[in-house]
Every structure is written in C-alpha cells, then in structure tokens.
Amino acid sequence: MLQHLKQTDHGTPRRESEQLVTLEIDGNEATVPKGTSVMRAAVDAGIQVPKLCATDSLEPFGSCRLCLVEVEGRKGYPASCTTPAEAGMKVRTQTPKLQELRKGVMELYISDHPLDCLTCSANGNCELQDMAGVTGLRNVRYGMEGANHLHSAKDESNPYFNYDPSKCIVCNRCVRACEETQGTFALTISGRGFDSRVSAGQDESFMESECVSCGACVEACPTATLQEKSVIWLGQPEHSAITTCAYCGVGCGFKAEMKGNEVVRMVPWKDGKANEGHSCVKGRFAWGYTTHADRMLKPMIRAKITDPWQEVSWEVAINHAASEFKRLQAKYGRDSVGGITSSRCTNEETYLVQKLVRAAFGNNNVDTCARVCHSPTGYGLGQTLGTSAGTQTFKSVEQADVIVLIGANPTDGHPVFASRMKRRLRGDGYTPGAKLIVIDPRRIDIVRMPHVQATHHLQLKPGTNVAVISAMAHVVVTEGLVDEAFVTERCDIKSFNQWREFVARPANSPEALEAATGVPAAEVRAAARLYATAKNGAIYYGLGVTEHSQGSTMVMGIANLAMATGNVGREGVGINPLRGQNNVQGACDMGSFPHELPGYRHVSDSTVRAEFEAAWGVTIDPEPGLRIPNMFDAALCGQFKGLYCEGEDIVQSDPNTQHVAAAMMAMECVVVQDLFLNETAKYAHVFLPGSSFLEKDGTFTNAERRISRVRKVMPPKAGYADWEVTQMLANALGYPMNYKHPSEIMAEIAALTPTFRGVSFEKIDRLGSVQWPCNEDTDEAGTATMHTDRFVRGKGRFIITQYVATDEKVTRKFPLLMTTGRILSQYNVGAQTRRTENNRWHSEDRLEIHPHDAEERGIKTDDWVGIASRAGDTVLRATVTERMQPGVVFTTFHFPESGANVITTDNSDWATNCPEYKVTAVQVMPVMQPSAWQAENSRFNRVQQALLHAGSEPAEVEEVEEVEVLGEVADRAQGQ
Length: 976
Ligand code: SF4
Ligand code: SF4
Ligand code: SF4
Ligand code: FES
What we know:
Layout: E1 2-3, E2 20-25, E3 28-33, H1 38-44, E4 70-71, E5 90-92, H2 96-111, H3 127-134, E6 161-163, H4 173-182, E7 187-190, E8 197-200, H5 216-220, E9 226-228, H6 229-234, E10 239-244, E11 253-259, E12 262-268, H7 281-285, E13 300-301, E14 310-311, H8 314-332, E15 337-341, H9 347-361, E16 366-368, H10 375-384, E17 402-406, H11 410-413, H12 415-426, E18 435-439, E19 448-449, E20 452-453, E21 456-458, H13 465-478, H14 484-490, H15 493-503, H16 510-517, H17 521-532, E22 537-541, H18 543-546, H19 551-564, E23 575-577, H20 584-589, E24 596-597, E25 601-602, H21 606-616, H22 628-636, E26 642-646, H23 650-653, H24 657-665, E27 669-674, E28 686-689, E29 698-701, E30 706-710, H25 722-732, H26 742-752, H27 761-767, E31 769-771, E32 816-821, E33 846-849, H28 851-857, E34 864-869, E35 873-880, E36 888-892, H29 900-903, E37 920-926, H30 932-950, H31 957-973
Helix pairs in contact: 8-25, 9-25, 9-26, 10-19, 13-16, 13-17, 13-19, 16-17, 22-24, 30-31
The chain binds iron/sulfur cluster (3 copies) and FE2/S2 (inorganic) cluster.
FE2/S2 (inorganic) cluster binds near residues 51, 62, 64, 66 and 81.
C-alpha cells in the first residue's frame, strides 16, 4: 500500500477540549476544540496559511511572521499560529495587504539564502521553496553583496545527517524539536540578531555535543539545513510505504521512503500511535544492515561443523534439513528435535515455526528468546491479573502523576517512549510534571537530566528487588495507604488478607531489609508514600526486574503493589513491562512457549488442543516440551539432536556461553535461518538465508499489545521471506502448508485465538493498528487499557512474595556484582546495529566500574580489565564512572568478542528459567591480554570464516589443523 510522501501539516498541535468554538475563516465555518490555533482551524477547513516556523509536532513560536492573518474588529495582523481560535471570530487569510507583508518577509529570508534550488538536496521537498512560490515572490531587491551566511562552514560530523548553516532561516524548529519532542536540549540559537545561528551543545559539532541522533531536528527543519546524508547522496524519494521499526518493543511506525527498491530514508510516521512522529537513532537511521555485504544470500549445508560450507539451491538445503530431522527422529525419537522462534520475525512467521514444531515435528519443543527476557512477565502477570501483557498504551503515561521506573533504562532501551515519559515528567505550562521514582542499581540517565530529576532513586544492590517491593508494600499496608474500596471490589479478598498479613510483618519493613537492599529505609518509605498517594501511579519495568532468580516473584510483587493501591484499570496507571525486541510480545502471543498454544492456552487443555488439532489435522502432544535451557541440557545428555533456529543468536545471547557452545556441538543437525552468519550459525549444519523487515509482509506486536503492519518494500534478497522458508521446510517434512500471503496466516491465527478474533490485515490497514484483545467483545480497534471493569482472571489475585537472596553471592574471590544492560546506539546482540554507523557511538562493550573499586585495583578508564566469575572469564576495557555504586560493575553484550555471557551463570528464575543475567559475582583485575576464551573464540571464528570461503576446496593447512582440534571437541561433546 503506497502512501503519499507528505503528510498534512496542521501547523500547530491538536488540542483536546470538550468545549468547541465555531469561527469563520475566509467565509467558511470551522468548529474546533477550544485552544486550537487559527492556523490549525484553517487547515481543518481546507485552507492553507503560509508558514515557516510552525509545524504541528511543536508548540507555536511565532517568529517568522509569514502566517499573518486579518481578524475582523482587531487591529494589526496577528500570527495565526499563536492566535487561539475564538467563537464568532471572522478571519481572512488572503488579502492584498497580507500578500504584500508575506512577500516582504520572504524577500528578507531569500536575500540571505543560497539560490541553488536546482542542485539543492531538498529541491522539491523544501518549505522555503514552497513559501516563495505561495507568496508569489518573483525578485529580491536586496543584493547578496552585503553581510550574509552563504559561506558558513558545514558540520558533517554526524554519520547520518549534515548541518549546513548557510541554509538556516533560524526558525527555531530544530531547537524546539530537540527540547519538546526528544527532550535532550542539545541545541540552542547562539548569537543575536543577524549573528543568530543554530548551535549544538557549547558551539560543538553535533557528534561532540550531547545530541543522541534521534533525527527530530532533521524532521522538523523546513529547509535543507539539517538534511539526511542518504537524501544528499541518493536524491529525493519517489514513493513510500508505512511499516514498523524492527528494533525495540516500542514499535514505532515509519514511512519507508524509497527510490525503486532502494530505501532513501525512514521517516517517523506521524499517525503511528506508538511514536506519533518521533524516532530514535536506530529506527530512523540504522537500517543500513539490511543491505550490508555480510548478508548471507545463499542456502548452505555441511555434514559437520568442521566441514567447509557448500552453497546449494533452496530445494537441496530444505530437503537436506528435512531429511536430517526425519533421520534424527527415527533414530533418537520424536522428542529429539525442536525449534526456536524469533522475536524479530513477524507474528505470522513465529506462528508458523511453532506450528511446524507441533504439527510436523509432533512435539512441543519450541521456545523463544522471551525465555531469556520477559518470561517472568508472562508468568507473574498471568498469575495475578490473568493475562501476560502490559496494561496500558504508551500514551497513558501522559496521565500519570507518579511514575515508578524499575530495572529499566528507557532513554537507552526504549528511547521514543522515554521521550514521551520525559515530556510528562517536565510538565507543560498548564500541568506540573509527574514525579519520578527510579529503582535501579545504576544511576541511569533519567535520574538526572535536563529538566528531569527523580524525586527518589532507590539505588538497590543487584538481586534485592523483591526485598524493596515488599518493603514498599509494608509501608502501604502499615500506614493505611491501601485503596480498600478497589481491593474490596476488584480483588480476591482471601489472597489479599494473606498478603497483607505477610507484608506487614516486621521482617518486611524497610528498616529490616535495609541491610540487604542497601537502600535507606526513609527513602523506601517516602517513595512508597509518594506512589500510594498519587492520583495516578504508573509502574514501568524492564529486564532489571525479570532477569533474576526471583524475576517472576518481583513481577507478582509489582502487581500486588499496583492492585493494593488501586493503580490498575484506567488511564495513567498500570503495570507496564517495556519489552526488549520488536516482536517479543508477539512471539509470546503466538504460542512460542513449550507449554502454551497461541493465546497463552496450556497444551494440556484438551478443548484447546482439539481446536488446533481440527484445524491443523494432527494430534498435538499434551505434554509441554523443552525450554531452551532444557534443550541445551538434553543435547549434552545425548537426547536432543536437532534444532531449527529462526532469527535468534542463542550462542551470543544466552548465558554461560561455553555451556551453550558445548550443547550446540553435541547436536547433529542445527539449522539456522538468519540474515548473517551469526555466532549460532558457526555451529550450524544448514544455513537458510533470512529476510529483513523491508522484504516481507506481516505484523509486529509491541509492548502495548499493539499489532502493526510490516510492509514489503523490496523483494527478499535471498528469494524468499522467512514465512515462505518455514512453509517449504514443513512441506518437505511432509506436513502441508500452502499459504499464499501472510494475511492468510493471520486469518488462521484469528480463527484459533479468542483474543485475536477481530484481527485482520484489512482492519489494520484501515485503522493503522489494533491492540489485542481485539474481538467481538471489544472496540473495533481492540483494547487500549486492560482490566478496566474486572481483571481478566476475574478477581485480582495477591501472591505472597518472600524475598530469597540469590545463590550468586559475593565472596573474597568474587567480591563485585556484575549486572548487564543496553546502550542507545546498539541493539541486543548487535547483529544489526554493529553493521551500521551506530558503531561510531559505541564500538565495543565496556565494563563500568565505580572510582573506589577502580582505584583499589589500579584501574583507569580505557585500561584492559579481566572479569572472572564462577562460569568463566573475559577481558574488556574499563570506564570508571560514578553511575555505578561501589561494589557493582556493569557491561553490555552487543559484541560477540566481549563474551559478556561467558561470565554470566546458568542460575535462573525459579518459575520460568529466565537467566539471572543481572547478578553475577565477579572479580575485576587489570590484565594485558585477552582471556583464554577470547583467544579460543577468535581462533574458532577464523576457522569458521575459512570454512565459509573454502567452498569445496580444502582449507589452508593451519586452518585444517585447527579444524581437527575443533573436531575433537565436537566429537567429545557428541560422546563419540
Ligand atoms: S538529532 Fe535529536 S538529539 Fe540530536 S540535536 Fe537533533 S533533535 Fe536533538
Ligand atoms: S536548522 Fe532548520 S529548523 Fe533549525 S533553525 Fe535552521 S532552518 Fe530552522
Ligand atoms: S524507539 Fe524502538 S521502535 Fe522506535 S525507532 Fe527506536 S528502536 Fe525503533
Ligand atoms: S508560522 Fe506563524 S509565525 Fe511562523
């Protein structure tokens, strides 16, 4: 579905008001909500008023004087962008006098502007050019001889956009976009009068400044002053399609602007409900990986991982994979193979993989990477509220008065939502900002940044979340802060009373738990009071909650607290997991877990199974299958022999890398379907090329349960979209699949899943997006806020959350606690972002360490440090920073050579096996060389690269020797 390239610009933002005013504009009647500008009222009435400094994503500024109008009975010529529409007003937008004034304004602008329109990169998409035409400017009386800015130096430092001050009209839109939309405050107008110019930071280049490259200023700029480099290189786009970002769980809508099959730029979609026209550096600019030379475009097979890869046809690769899976099942049993679905693939693709496992393999050995991130969310919210998803829309945060942020770093992990949250925290001229409570071991940016400061930062020790939430609950219960009416009406009273008695115990008081958590009791008390007494208290959380041995307990603790204070079931409140990957919500919804069919229905439920059995024409195993860690353990025991892994890099992303690698080597047929030869593919026997989000149709579901379209804007580079590959594999396995288009897959999902009953491609195309539950019981667009009248499970259930310290304890040998997380410019295992210019911001994983711990060990920033845990050791460079508390270190896991997961242990959440990534006891010491694992891994990589390029030729001698060493390891692991 092609969209027009330009969306209507209403000039000023929409105003919400129940009061309407009716006015007359150029003889036309217009009725608008009170507070709407005359300019917007005119646009709504189909009348365009010339403008330059106004745009509908920003508050009006009134500087360019191009939008002047005449208002009957008023003197002068008010700016329509800053003049509110009033009842009975009679406005004229086109008169000879206005024409003359506007022409004069334009003449001044153009007299200090290069007249190179024909060769300008914005030619055809420049508001200044448009306004010169609209105002009828034909000649400029002032010459170019006097002082001007035509030779000002360009700033080309940012890898994605240029700043050319010679074209700047000082309209201030960029500065306001950075402040209002993004909330970074990186830009100012420096100088006065004629010398006024946009400046990043303290007259620094964009790269040196605090700019985070979100692109909001570029989008807001009406001229070619701030311009995407891709547009400068490729020219203006010709056509576009609306699609959804393939990075994080915010799920921003984008307009992919194209020239033929080439992306010229990704422009945030103003009507995208998750982002409303905003973006971050990843979605906006980091799409170069889709055409990177590292893309693997040919299917490949090999008998052993020590053999060279052979490029083969799709048919050969698919038939080989299918015959291997059949051979393994015949030899080792039906349960000896399984599959892993991808949170990066579409809902339709994920659904097909789990269907293949259940229908073609005939078992439930299917799991997904949500296992290692938000599986405790599924369990915890399912137990307490009855459904495994967040309760709100992102927009809901605009109604929150107190925001509690637990174990999440949205300015890095969910940047577009963070901008929305920061806007609410700053407040505006009418409403004071919300208060912020941050519960996090690190001093993350949002604790203190321009115009945002947390009221409380509970800087707890890693692993003590449950103690903190119990202590907050203790305050609520013992200080009479329970919302008794809500609890009585909406919750299960028996469970509430048990919980109340439990948390009221002195052992759960902030004072009793202070030693364990490291958080002063008074801070916990103050934070609990603030949240409990808020009109609207909203909780947002991330992997700092789930990736713990008590991840599920903490999720239930959060739900308990929200229910006890009545903060569920309306706008501005709720429990909101910030999902990591683009479609992690969808992967869970689609039945990727070994115990659940699509829609979170247990495989042991014979009624549910019967529905799927009838539709799929097979018998479904009533027993849950293996989770990912169980697959690894079973592989090492010789019971699990074959894996179909679509779009996941388990060797890099899962904990205890050496254990994972050994498990991979113990399997006889690993089929990897991916864009790149990732770390997992190095252990594969069949490689099936994947397709990027630009190459296929489908849907993603974001953290708000919002289902949005992914649209194909170019043909699959390797010939097939991922869903087609899965379909071919199923057919080769003897289980027929014959979908012609992903819309047919969604139709099947809708038919079999009650919460998706009303979802269809046609509806999403028509409405833009829908939110599940979406069926005959909901609005047409589904459900924005969950649990409004009753909880999905009926009565909200309180669950006792006993704090149990993790087994992962600091000792003299391992005296520090390591925790992991993300940074803005990289994404997850980095497979995509590492293949973009985003590396300019973050080209390696680093170890953050507090100055005291660093000094004790003689470590300075940039030093190489060895990090050793009970699981393994690795070497990174250090960054000494007070963001860390003493005793805690932090790293990211975006680069495979860092081996962050060599250190993490296989401790996991008691309920879901979600790994305890956030707590690893380590020692850190200065070192001079890579760790033994890094040396071995780099050797293994060299060998694998040689095998990739060797084709049928024998590998070089040195490589053959190394292959033999590897072969021995593999044989040992396979018990041969
Ligand atoms: S790219 Fe974003 S952060 Fe950087 S200056 Fe522009 S608006 Fe500000
Ligand atoms: S850079 Fe663009 S948006 Fe900023 S003041 Fe100049 S013309 Fe306006
Ligand atoms: S916030 Fe997330 S979904 Fe939005 S552009 Fe950035 S990475 Fe993409
Ligand atoms: S658009 Fe109104 S003053 Fe510039």
